[in-house]
Amino acid sequence: MEVRLIPLSGCLNVSLGVMTLGIAPLAVWLNTRSWPQTLDEQGVVTRGGKRIPWSAFTKAVKVITRIPDTGVTVERYDLHSPQGVVRVALDRIENKDAVWAYIWERLPEQAKGA
User: Fold this and answer.
1) Cα 93 from Cα 105, distance rounded (Å)
2) For the stretch 3-22, what's the b/e string if a residue is b when 16 or more beta carbons lie within 10 angstroms of its beta carbon?
């Protein structure tokens, strides 16, 4: 299963790029390298090219970020393994319910309870 991202607005990217001298778009790109690109029966391939088998995941942590004074709440799941952390930002994923159901079915039981 391919994990497709909802793109950020072009105007937002340009604005952030200008205001931060190109640092913000670079930081966003570096951050998304730990996000899933494809999911299959064997495991996850991140956008950075790292393959992690389902059996390697040891912990799934729900991370909730609240942005002060805006009322905006952002959720993601961090899937921990010895090879690294895979970040699943559901707000930025197309068909997020199907993607999360696919991941949850394949995570080891010990990772779900952590």
Assistant:
1) 18
2) beeeeeeeeeeeebeeeeee
3-class secondary-structure state, position 95: coil
How far apart CA 37 and CA 51 sit, in angstroms, is: 10
Query: Could you tell me the residue ranges of all domains in the chain?
Result: 35-112
Best CA proximity match to 37, nearest among 64, 63, 5, 83: 5
DSSP string, 1-22: -B-PBPPPPHHHHHHHHHHTTT
Whether 17 and 25 have beta carbons less than 8 Å apart is answered as yes
Q: What is the DSSP letter of 17?
A: H
Reported pTM: 0.83
Q: 55-89 pLDDT, tens per residue?
A: 999 999 999 999 898 888 989 999 999 999 999 99
Q: What angle do CA 22, 25, 31 make, to 5 degrees?
A: 135
Say whether pLDDT at 114 is over 70. Answer: no
Kindly report the CA angle at 101 between 43 and 1, in degrees rounded to 5? 50
